[in-house]
Amino acid sequence: MRAEYALVRQELQADCFAGVWAHHADNARQLLEAGDVAEAEGRLDEALTAFEESLALRRSTGGREASDPHAQAALSIS
Q1: Are 11 and 50 spatial neighbours (Cβ–Cβ below 8 Å)?
Q2: H-type helices in the chain, by residue range?
C-alpha cells in the first residue's frame, strides 16, 4: 500500500507542476482556451473522488484488494 501512496503523491505533484506551468504559459502566451481550466478541475475532482472511494473500500476490507475473496466476504457482511 505504501507504493500506492507514493504513486499518488507523485501524480499529485505532477498535477501541481502542470498547473503551475499552465498558469505561467497562459499568462505569457495565452495558450489556454476558454474552459480548459474548468475541464482540468473537473477531471482532477473525478480522480480525487475515485481515489477516496478506493481508500474507503480498502479500509472496509482491512487493507485487502477488493478482488481478494476474504475482502469480498467482509463487504457482504456489512
Answers
A1: no
A2: 2-29, 36-60, 69-77
Give residue-wise pLDDT tens across range 12-66: 888 889 888 888 888 888 888 888 888 888 888 888 888 788 878 777 766 655 5
Q: Retrieve residue 71's grid coordinates.
A: 475482502
Within 8 A by CB and 6+ apart from 72, the residues are 66
DSSP secondary structure code for residue 34 in this structure: T
- Give the burial string for 13-40 (b: 16+ CB within 10 Å, else e): eeeeeeeeeeeeeeeeeeeeeeeeeeee
State the Cα–Cα distance between residues 31 and 29, nearest whole angstrom: 5
Cell numbers 479500509 correspond to what residue?
59
Q: Answer yes or no: are the C-beta atoms of 54 and 25 closer than 8 Å.
A: no
Spatial CA neighbour of 43 closest among 6, 18, 70, 71: 18
